[in-house]
Amino acid sequence: MSAAAEGSAGFAARHKVALGFAGGIIAILFGAAAGYALGYEEQAVASGLISLFVVGTALAVPAPVSYKAAIGIGLVATFGLLIAELTTGSPIASGIAMGVVSLLMSLARAGGKRAFVIGLVLGTGYFLPATLGLVDGINGEDVGEIGLAGIVAGLVLALGVSTLHRQVGSGNATSKKAEAPAKSEPALPKMWAELRRLGPDARTGIRRGLLLGIVMAFYQVDGNVNLFWILLTINLILQPDPSASVNRALSRSIGAVIGALLVGILSQFIPGTTMIILGVLAVVFGLSWYRKDYTVYAACVTFLAVSIYGADTGSFWEWAGLRAIDTLIGAAIAIASIYLIFPEQKRAKSS
């Protein structure tokens, strides 16, 4: 391979995540436009989220099952939206829903790749609408319309991308074909076995379920934005491996402080609208570092979040401090739970 070809391949590898992010934005906008066309406003964002899942599944799963899988994932995301619609507004119901969904997301890891994806989509399809107010003012029938709009928009966009890809690469590429699926144990028995033996995924799920359920219940009482960021931090930090959770907590805390400080300093010289634009660009850049250095990614996400809130109120330093403090609180709660809820050392001694 020539030096030019190697450089081109390296560029593509380094920026694959960022390019995927750009494609994801298009999928969200396309789905949101479909929801908006049906008369929904901020709730149309949920259609965009469902469209994103549908497009990603349709393009990732080999033919001929790709579109069936995409529709299935769209229905899972719509079910998550329905759970949010049924429980949001009630602290007790929301806390229980958040706890159960969090437990299922963790147990899904033990069920295999497909179960993990389904759990991730269900959790995201519930968590974001429930915490961002995307189900305010709608009912179950509206959820069906929003879900259908997202699924149809996602399928149309995926079909267009696939058609374009075939036309452009027909001369030097072959289409993906589904391989014969390997026989494996169904997901539910493996998830149940993981729960019964209190394996790593089960313990993480119980920790996440308890913590996130409690914080979600308090968040539903008054919608305090600080609780949202604590909730999000706990959700992102807790991993089945305790050492991975500690590393994630350190990376996220350091990144949040760095991102908040950068916003506070730059906001003294740059207008608010420009800060938001810089924040969006920072997230695109940060996504390309997600696997390499989570600290960089966390700093970029914090930069965007503080820029949005700061531009709205004009108090950049205040929001920078709040986001850093919320992240540190969430990280401390997450790490404390590792040593207080099914601690590893005690389990090792008992076994």
Brief write-up:
Helix content is about 80%, strand content about 0%. It is globular and about 50 Å long.
What would you say this structure looks like, in words?
There is one protein chain. This protein is mainly α and 351 residues long. The protein has two domains: 12-166 and 197-223, no CATH class; 224-351. Helices cover 80% and strands 0% of the residues. It is built from 15 helices and no strands. The chain has helices at 3-14, 16-37, 44-60, 66-87, 91-110, 113-132, 140-169, 187-196, 200-222, 225-237, 242-266, 272-287, 294-313, 316-340, 344-350. It starts with a helix and ends with a helix. The model is unreliable at 1-12, 171-175 and 347-351 (pLDDT under 50).
List keywords for this structure.
15 helices, mainly alpha, 351 residues, single chain, 2 domains, 0% strand, disordered C terminus, 80% helix
Number of strands: 0
What is the number of domains?
Answer: 2
Tally of individual helices: 15
Report the sheet-strand fraction: under 5%
The rough form would be described as globular
Helices and strands: which structural class? mainly alpha
- Main sheet attributes: strand count, strand direction, barrel closure: none
The termini sit apart by: 54 Å
What is the radius of gyration? 21 Å
Task: Give the SSE map.
Layout: H1 3-14, H2 16-37, H3 44-60, H4 66-87, H5 91-110, H6 113-132, H7 140-169, H8 187-196, H9 200-222, H10 225-237, H11 242-266, H12 272-287, H13 294-313, H14 316-340, H15 344-350
Helix pairs in contact: 2-3, 2-7, 2-12, 3-4, 3-7, 4-5, 4-6, 4-7, 5-6, 5-8, 5-9, 8-9, 9-10, 9-14, 10-14, 11-13, 11-14, 12-13, 13-14
